[in-house]
Amino acid sequence: MATKIIKVDPAKPDEKALVEAADILREGGLVIIPTETVYGIAANSNNEKTVKKLWEVKKRPANKHFSLHIDSSQRVKDFVMAVPLAAYKLMDRFWPGPLTMIFRAKDAGTIGIRMPDNKVALRIINLAEVPIVCPSANISGNPAPINFEQAIKDLNGKVDMALDCGPAQLGVESTVVDLTVDPVNVLREGFIKKDQIFETIKRKTVLFVCTGNSCRSVMAQALLLKKLKDSGRQDIEVLSAGLMMADGLGASQETKEVLKREGIDVSGHRSQRVSVEMLDRSDIILVMEKLHESRILQMAPEVKSRLFLLKEFAQVKDNDLDILDPIGRPRDFYEYTLGVIKEAVDKISRII
Predict the structure, then answer these.
(1) Which range of residues forms the domain containing residue 188?
(2) What per-residue string of b and e applies to 89-119 under the rule 16 or more CB within 10 Å gives b?
(3) Quick one: pLDDT at residue 317?
(4) Is residue 345 part of a domain?
């Protein structure tokens, strides 16, 4: 069998070539494609005959499995039993990129998943519309190929198609992290170093959520950031978001004024809408009302153990745990709201 070789511009790839590669994969063929780390042999993991052929072509030991390559981090949930918080943190920082994570698979056993940072690879995976595995394009035991010449050397005639996109951007294999154990274990240190992995996992994210991200959550975020700065803490990320407001709006005038008295300037604040991705990677999610709590659980039920009403951490003197929206209310209500939030944030700053 002759391998069809097509030269592709990695910056402006010919869509026709990528569609052809995706068609071959869907039909059970093998295709050499680039990633940012090394060249790989892509195959349809749903096709048992194809996977068997891939084992034979690579002469891979029977105990070594192939990792899945995906084009969106949201696809992880399709294959994984449960996604740990550490995985979301690593995805947020390193994907797309040279990081393979090992999870407990839905269909028993474990599964390695990676999202490559390569335009050609991502587009082919997207077009194929089948799960793609993509081990390095070499005979097992040989060095992983960092350019097309090395990739095709031993595989010409053994694969259906090969895309020549020049040298791999990084030329170093992905780092492999096992998330099925606690603490997580770095099985292979590649381009991403071990200390970067643990630094990312260790870093905490606090997310405040209100309705519009223009007053209550802005107050909470600003107050906590000031507390952390005053205490020299740099290991915590503080976010705020709204459930309903459009992105890009500023804080309300009253919010800016009451925070200015605390020595805080939020004139640069711009609202953002809360997303599932934001919720997934947050260590603690603090909301202002029970309604917010319900809405968030509808969006991401898996965050239940990390979701709290902010007023639970204040010195509550009544049974109402809602911090009501001050929008449209008198200035003294803003002052009261700030006071309640400040009490809660003080306690949060001592326990995170």
Answers:
(1) 4-192
(2) bbbbbbbbbbbbbbbebeeeeebbbbbbbbb
(3) 65
(4) yes
